[in-house]
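[agent] plan:
  1. take the single chain provided in the ticket
  2. run structure prediction with default settings
  3. attach structure tokens to the ticket
  4. add a short note for the reviewer (M.T.)
[agent] executing step 1
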Amino acid sequence: MRTVLLLGCLVVVLSVAAALFSKDRPVLRPWPANPWYWSVNDQPVLLLGGSDDDNLFQWSEQALIAQLDRLAAAGGNYIRNTMSDRRIEGFEVYAYARRPDGRYDLDQWNDEYWQRFERLLRETARRNIIVQIEVWDRFDFTDHTSEKHWQAHPYNPANNVNYTANQSGLAVLYPDHPGLNRQPFFFTTPHQRHNRTLLAYQQRFVDKLLEHSLGYDHVLYCIDNETNGEAAWAHYWADYIRKRARQRDREVQVTEMWGAWRLTAAEHRHTFDYPELFAYVELSQNTHNRGDRQWEELSAARAYLGGRPRPMNTVKVYGADGSDFGRTDQVGVERFWIQLFGGSAAVRFHRPDAGLGLGDLAVASLRAARKLNERVPLWSVQPANGLLADREANEAYLVADGRGSYGLYFPAGGAVRVDLRAAAGDLTLQWIDISSGEWAGQQSISGGRAVAITAPGPGSWAATIVRQP
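[agent] step 2 finished; step 3 output follows
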């Protein structure tokens, strides 16, 4: 009888897991009980991730499955997927069919591209991994880098049979950094230059993307990668995607990613101020900042959004040895944890070499963060650095629920005093070694007062403080 009951329980658990991303109804949305965080079937979920590429759908089936399995085994459930098709590694394919004469036909799809995309959606759904899609990546449409991506792209009028440079308004060369906004591709919408020729092909691409993605409920949508273009572009595509979803009786969550490192910059208000269009906000560029500046920018964003709270996602955490965007692995780990403690609902390590990807240090942080969240759910606490004393710059970060549960993070050892007056009685402090992702001992402490707490060593540490049973 016991064996039968155990088997029955296993069937129920597997059935619930399989139902998380059922095609019968949309299930991924801001949590009604605390809209700073995501929920699946109205149950809160913390999104943690890392991956070794930004467009995993282009990978081979074997490589993709190995990456997703490694992520899931570490407790990860969140990836980034740009729809980028630029040839960097050599195995990437474009979305459009190529004719014998070498030119592309924008009226004909390359089935391999879309089969790869469908495979990613299918395999992530099987593992309950949320996919945050970026529809457009401005670096696909520039010759600024040594690879000269625009020179080979199907949208380049020199490379397709569908329009000329005069008809499309597109030049055959764009050597400038895309941040200078000299690429007309991003100015086609009705409230911009209303380039009907090009807009029709852009709409056709998005429709094809949605034809696949709207069949699944584990997808978030982001319009661009770190843009500083016009708000009209972002607002048009957010509205377009939402309308297409409603026609399919689907609910979708859309945002835009702005390029400004300061979250107080005016361009971020193009999403902050429009909750009817943007169900969440993307704060990845804040991880170009570090330490207290990074924390302060998060706090400012949270304060600005306070009357209209939404999930704050960070799909790119910068920093790794040799990276131009934070030159040590320690910086990458630190930025991940500050975003986490600062209130981000979704945090992912950026791909190498700009970030730690899904390397061993990233995996350890994912495991550590999952342990902390099991003991002190981050949707139940708030940033609480005001409860710290004797703190040096970037020494420690705290979250608290005001009732006796705390999370504490030391980037590189240290000692602080924590105000525990809201938690009278006996408490358990349990350490997590972030470098390994493992529990690292516990101790009993007395609450109801300020308590001096010293990290076990010079490395990165997290701790949970909870009432004893």
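[agent] step 4 note for reviewer: The CA atoms of residues 52 and 271 lie 28 Å apart.
[agent] ticket updated
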